[in-house]
Amino acid sequence: MRYARLSVNKFRFQVQPNTWDCGVYLLHLTKVFMSNPEHYFRVITTTKGTMPSSDRRVTWQDQEVPNLRDHLVARITQLSEAWKAEKVAKEEEARRRKREELEAEVLSSDGEVDIVQVSGEVKRSPQRRHCQ
Question: What is the mean pLDDT of residues 9-31?
């Protein structure tokens, strides 16, 4: 069995300033990193010592986070409204089809008579005696 030696590094990237933007920061940092992976990999892995917070904010484009948050809220709201409208349209279409099916059923059975033949004996269930 082979063992690998792990080393622990302090990576240099911006962190969220609050407790509720973790998802937004994760998306933002991923977007920034993927815009130039080689550059940001070098920033993360080769920067020695501590990087001042102001430099991290500039390097990781921290000023863009509020814009991303606003964009995500607007996009989610837009998709939600579109989904709701589509759902209403589908429900109305289903009701319209059901009405058409019922109307077609009524029209097709207008002059028809169903004849039902019953054969066999009719058995009565035994009567129960009541205790007195």
Answer: 82
